[in-house]
Specification:
186 residues, 4% strand, 5 helices, two-stranded antiparallel sheet
């Protein structure tokens, strides 16, 4: 039998069952010396059966654990937002009253530490580098950007021969613009 970790549980259980069956069938009252210890068929079967029982117990425990974890996840999905809302509400109600918040197992919010001038300069440099790397521009800068088009080819789209022509409005014919700003009778 190869190492238990090399096989799946099902294959290991099948191998153990085959060993038990083979021992009981071929050597019903046999004796074996394995290592320096003497074993009878009954003691070997008992040892192998205890391993099978341990595997089955682990499988059952894992199935129960999966159900418990799924139940926890479902409950957390329902109750988690309620807990967060309650914590936020208590923090806003009691502000910096550490004694009162401690009754609920909460600590007051910490004020953010002011950034130093070095941190501000580093943040500005990083933001500028990010805009350059992404190629982002302000709306005014975007107005100056135009595209160049060369070598345009127009390919007509034709309908399949079996298709019936659909009712499409006739294309509008261009008309000359009416004269503006002048009087008609000069």
């Amino acid at each position: 039998m190869s190492s238990i970790s090399d096989q799946s549980k099902a294959a290991t259980l099948a191998q153990l069952q085959a060993l038990i069956t083979g021992l009981q069938k071929q050597f019903p009252s046999g004796q074996f010396t394995l290592g320096n210890t003497a074993f009878t068929t009954a003691t070997l079967v008992q040892a192998l059966q205890s391993l099978v029982d341990a595997f089955n117990a682990v499988t059952a425990a894992q199935a129960t654990a999966k159900v418990a974890v799924a139940t926890l996840a479902a409950t957390l999905a329902k109750v988690g937002p309620i807990v967060l809302a309650l914590q936020h509400n208590l923090l806003s109600m009691f502000g910096n009253a550490t004694d009162t918040l401690a009754l609920f197992g909460l600590e007051p919010r910490k004020a953010p530490a002011p950034r130093t001038s070095v941190e501000n300069a580093a943040a500005a440099a990083k933001a500028k580098a990010t805009r350059i790397a992404r190629g982002t521009a302000s709306p005014k800068q975007k107005l100056t950007v135009t595209g160049n088009v060369t070598g345009v080819q127009v390919i007509p789209i034709t309908a399949p021969a079996s298709a019936t022509p659909s009712a499409q409005p006739a294309p509008a014919t261009p008309t000359a613009p009416a004269p503006s700003g002048g009087t008609a009778g000069k």
